[in-house]
Each structure stands twice: as C-alpha cells, then as structure tokens.
Amino acid sequence: NGFEGMISRIPLVQPIYGGAKKLMTMLSTKPAGTQRVVLIDFPSPELKSIGFVTRLFVDGQGRELASVYVPTTPNPTGGYLEIVPVEKLVATDWSMDQAMAFILSGGAVGPDKLPDAAHPAHIEPDHLEKP
Q1: Residue 85 forms beta bridges with which residues?
Q2: Is the pLDDT of residue 129 over 50?
Q3: Alpha helices in 2-125 (DSSP H)
Q4: How far apart are CA 83 and CA 127, in angstroms?
Q5: Residues 6+ apart with CB under 8 A from 50
Q6: Helix (H, G, I), strand (E, B), or coil: what is residue 59?
Q7: CA 121 – CA 88 distance, rounded (Å)
Q8: Which is it for strands 64-71 and 48-58: parallel, antiparallel or unpaired?
Q9: 4-36 pLDDT, tens per residue?
Q10: pTM of the entire predicted model
Q11: Lower CB count within 10 Å: N or C terminus of the chain?
Q12: pLDDT band at 118 (very low <50, low <70, confident <90, very high)
C-alpha cells in the first residue's frame, strides 16, 4: 500500500501503473492452464504482435474466433482489440509476466526464442477459455 501510495503521487507514472495493474488483474482472473499469450499477424501479415486472448466465440458461419487484446508499448492499457480466427493464432509458452515485461520494456526484456510464426502451432479451442 505504501508503494502504491507513492506511485499515485508521481505525475504520468500513476496512470500507466494503475492501468497496467488493472489490466493484469483482469487477465490474471482467467482459470489457470488456459492459453492467453499468443502472436498474431498485426498490423500486417508480415509483422507479429503479442496479444492476449480474452474470449472465444463462433461467427454466423460456425467459424471459431478469438478476441485478442493487443497492448501498446509503453502503456499497455492502450491497445487494439482484434477478432482473429483461432487457426491464425500462434501459441506461445510465455507467462503473463514475461509478456508484460516484454511489452513494457519495448522488447528489451523477454525470452531469447520466439515461437515459429511461419509454422503456427495451432491452438486447440479446448485450451482457450470459452465464454
């Protein structure tokens, strides 16, 4: 509480810290064992972005889609919500903490190896939390 009180008095830091804390709290309330950290083709097919799967749903044609939140650097509370076909998600073995450290550091802190985005490891829908 003392640390958070100190943070709340620092201009520009509190909105980022407070927003990041709320985002982490929301994402960490998902049940353990669900796949959350993925790579997606964003903003173009040649580029990859880290995203957090927030839910699954089915479109009118029966295709399974995932809502993926793509946070921005250095303030992860701002970002994009992308609707992505499940078969386009690239699975990672990153924890939420690893992904957030990577995002907040602008890519300076993170795992040394990325998943093979050219050959996505398809995520089975049962590894994602259903709505």
Answers
A1: 65
A2: no
A3: 2-8, 13-28, 96-104
A4: 18
A5: 37, 38, 39, 70, 71, 92, 94, 99, 102, 103
A6: coil
A7: 9
A8: antiparallel
A9: 677 667 776 666 777 677 766 666 665 444 458
A10: 0.69
A11: N
A12: low
Reported as a single tens digit per residue, the pLDDT across 46-95 is 999 999 988 888 999 999 999 999 998 887 778 999 999 999 999 888 88
Strand order in the sheet with 79-85: 79-85, 64-71, 48-58, 37-41, 90-91
Contacts of 4 (CB under 8 A, 6+ apart): none
What are the start-end ranges of the H helices in 34-126?
Answer: 96-104
CA dist 107 and 130 (Å) reads 30
- What 3-state DSSP class applies to 86? helix
pLDDT over 80 at 101, yes or no: yes
Query: For residue 92, which of 131, 34, 35 has the smallest C-alpha distance?
Result: 35
Report the candidate in 60, 121, 112 with the shortest Cα–Cα distance to residue 92.
121
- In this structure, what token pair is assigned to residue 27? 């994402």
DSSP 27-47: HHTSPTT---EEEEE-SSTT-
